[in-house]
Structures are given as structure tokens and as C-alpha cells.
Design brief:
By secondary structure, the protein is an alpha/beta fold. It contains seven helices and 14 strands. It is globular.
């Protein structure tokens, strides 16, 4: 089928974060939440890109917590590609160094990154494939998810997990807001939508509506 987006998942860094590469039939790709931390993880990502002859169009961040952006600066500068964040996540994005030192995690790469804001109304195109961008704050102030209707999936970062939700005890977190966001922006998607999470296994919207203890 020509309209399939290929999704490749990597599990990176000490926080077992899920990094995703979405590629289309023309071998253009976007990287979502590049969490590669160790050099062997960077190499694994690069080898996949080289092997599949991919051209990186941009980096999209669901949100800017450290585990989701260890590799952002490295990839952005190595491949000279733009980074997109939600405007409400700029504070989180800019506190990367501070948070790393708070956690006692040495920074591997921190070259300056030029970032752009998402235009929520416009969404994001990878070739002919449309990603709807939904604003789902609560785990982080500028958290977004990427929904592709034709291939029936959502890449939802740290909002919803299998039988769980994102933690809300970090700066800018808000439990009530997260619950409301998930109900309004995720539970309004078709129940058979596949949910790719920022940590752990995939699930579905229907499964979480029925079984998630937080609802």
C-alpha cells in the first residue's frame, strides 16, 4: 500500500524512553523525541537512517523533558534539521541543562538548537501524510500528540500509558489538567486507534477507555 507510514521504535537512555522514526514511501522521515544518550544509541539511530536511505525532514518533540531530548541537539546539528516544539514548552526546553544536573546526568551534547513552534491549526505534513497535532497538557505544559487518521495511530508521548498516565509531579505538571486533556483530546479518537507511548508497550484508545484505572 502506497499510503503506509513506516514506524520504527527505539528504546533509548537510562529512562527507557521510546524514540520514533516515521518514514514515507519517498524515504523522507521525521524523528519524534530523539532520546539517544549513549554513543552506541546514536550509532543505532544513524545506522537505521543510512541503511534505509532516509532523509530527515525535521525533529518533532511531544514535549521537552530530558529523556525525550537527550539526542535532539546531536541529531539537529549533525543532520542540520529544524526542531519543532509547542510554544508552552519553551521553558521546559530551555531548562534541559539545569534538569540534567539536578538528576546528576552528564550532558553528552548541548550545542545550541534553533527551534520552531508548531502551528496547531496547520498540523504537520510528511509528504502527503498528515499528522494532526493535538495539545494535551498536564504532564508537561506544552505537551502535544501526533495523530495520523489514515494509518490509525497516535504518538502520544507521556500522556497515556498502558493502564497508566504520565506523572504530574514534575515542574509544570497538573493532574486535573492531564485527566481533562486525555478525555478531550485522546478519548475522542476512534477506539481502535493504536497508541504509541513515550515509555513501555503500545496500547489502544479503546483498551485505555475501558481498563485504565485513572478513568
Amino acid at each position: 500500500k502506497l499510503n503506509m507510514l513506516k514506524i520504527k521504535k527505539f528504546v533509548f537512555n537510562p529512562f527507557s524512553e521510546n524514540t520514533f522514526i516515521l518514514s514515507n514511501e519517498l524515504n523522507n522521515c521525521i524523528i519524534i523525541d530523539p532520546g539517544c544518550y549513549h554513543s552506541h544509541e546514536e550509532k543505532e539511530l544513524e545506522e537505521y537512517i543510512t541503511l534505509n536511505k532516509l532523509k530527515i525532514v525535521s525533529i518533532l518533540q511531544t514535549h521537552s523533558h530530558l529523556d525525550h531530548m537527550f539526542g535532539t541537539s546531536y541529531i539537529a546539528n549533525k543532520y542540520n534539521v529544524p526542531v519543532f516544539i509547542h510554544k508552552d514548552d519553551e521553558t521546559t526546553f530551555n531548562s534541559f541543562e539545569k534538569v540534567c544536573s539536578m538528576y546528576g546526568v552528564p550532558i553528552q551534547y548541548n550545542d545550541p538548537i534553533n527551534f520552531n513552534y508548531f502551528d496547531l491549526g496547520k498540523g504537520f505534513y510528511l509528504g502527503n501524510h498528515f499528522l494532526e497535532i493535538r495539545f494535551v497538557p498536564g504532564h508537561a505544559p506544552g505537551h502535544v500528540v501526533f495523530y495520523n487518521a489514515e494509518n490509525n495511530f497516535v504518538i502520544n508521548g507521556d500522556c497515556l500509558f498502558q493502564s497508566s498516565i504520565g506523572r504530574t509531579d514534575l515542574p509544570g505538571g497538573n493532574h486535573e489538567q492531564l485527566i481533562k486533556s486525555i478525555k478531550n483530546e485522546l478519548f475522542t479518537l476512534p477506539e481502535n486507534t493504536k497508541v504509541y507511548c513515550g515509555h513501555g508497550p503500545e496500547t489502544s484508545i479503546g483498551e485505555e477507555m475501558k481498563n485504565n484505572p485513572f478513568f
